[in-house]
Design brief:
37% of the residues lie in helices and 22% in strands. By secondary structure, the chain is α/β, with parallel strands linked by helices. The chain has a single domain (5-261), classed as Vaccinia Virus protein VP39 (Rossmann fold, 3-Layer(aba) Sandwich). Strands 3-2-1-4-5-7-6 form a seven-stranded mixed beta sheet. Helix 4 (70-79) links the parallel strand 2 and strand 3 (84-87). Helix 5 crosses helix 7. The chain binds S-adenosylmethionine (SAM).
């Protein structure tokens, strides 16, 4: 996949998080983990439709929300007028240095063309002593030990979906699909952050049936993977999603919430 990730998100913005509140639930869980106080100047970096912005506003934070996708920002601005929302590249922020207490980026850093540039910008706009936290895409994590999530057997849908993606990844063209694993600790340390922390956020999302699961898959980043498959494989992938066991309805996902503090 050669085009920048935000273009895919711009295309799917109307449906994004509308089939199932996957990102909204994660946003709530992430904000609970970070527990920002009222009045906190919070930057939602790669805000999408406001998964983090909504719970941050509910806590009385002063929220600035930026995303490279104009359609995402339009939805966010309409739904959450209390936030200051801008179309902006996370890798080159048009925001003053040292102007936020907390910068949060949920499921964005690993889809940037240059993840280190995004993390460096988060550092620049944070006030000394402020914290940057992000989720998604880290290849180095301790939360799942041997790669097995606790209770994975009680919620096999995630494991089955992962196995499907792994199987079909063999059919992607070179450089296919969106995003790449990042190393959260390296990224944070290289940008100058200290006091590194790894916490966890978890969601459980119920899908009425596999048709809904498919519509959800097509409404966010999974779509890049599916569109990058050759047409015959894409049809097979679709069929295999529809054939997943009918009784297995709850998708449980856990992400690390990796964060570091800009030295005071
Ligand atoms: C998986 S979505 C996450 C959105 C939101 N944080 C959430 O949790 O729902 C990734 C978001 O990153 C945005 N994005 C991708 N590249 C970007 C960039 N260079 N600058 C700003 N936003 C970007 C996309 O437009 C998309 O909204």
């Amino acid at each position: 996949m050669e085009e920048s990730a935000w273009k895919l998100f711009d295309r799917v913005a109307a449906d994004y998080d509308q089939v199932a509140p996957f990102f909204a639930e994660f946003g709530r869980a992430i904000v609970d983990v970070l527990d920002p106080p009222a009045g906190c100047r919070l930057l939602d970096l790669g805000c999408g439709r406001g998964a983090l912005t909504a719970p941050a506003l509910a806590r009385g934070c002063a929220v600035t929300a930026v995303d490279a996708s104009p359609a995402m920002v339009e939805h966010l601005a309409a739904d959450f007028p209390a936030a200051s929302a801008y179309v902006m590249d996370a890798q080159a922020l048009d925001l003053p240095s040292e102007s936020f207490d907390l910068v949060v980026s949920s499921f964005v850093v690993h889809v940037l063309d240059d993840p280190a540039a995004g993390v460096a910008e988060a550092y620049r706009v944070l006030a000394p002593g402020g914290r940057f936290a992000f989720t998604g895409g880290s290849a180095r994590t301790s939360y799942d030990g041997r790669g097995v999530q606790p209770d994975a057997d009680a919620f096999p849908l995630g494991r089955r979906l992962d196995a499907l993606f792994q199987e079909f990844a063999a059919h992607l063209p070179p450089n296919g699909s969106m995003g790449r694993p990042v190393d959260a600790a390296d990224l944070l340390e290289e940008a100058g952050f200290g006091d590194l922390r790894e916490e966890q956020a978890e969601v459980r999302i119920e899908f009425g049936d596999n048709a809904m699961l498919w519509r959800w898959a097509m409404s966010h980043g999974y779509r890049a993977f599916i569109e990058d498959l050759p047409v015959d494989r894409r049809e097979e992938f679709h069929r295999r999603v529809l054939e997943l066991p009918a009784g297995d309805r709850v998708l449980r996902r856990v992400t690390g919430v990796w964060s570091g503090r800009r030295p005071a």
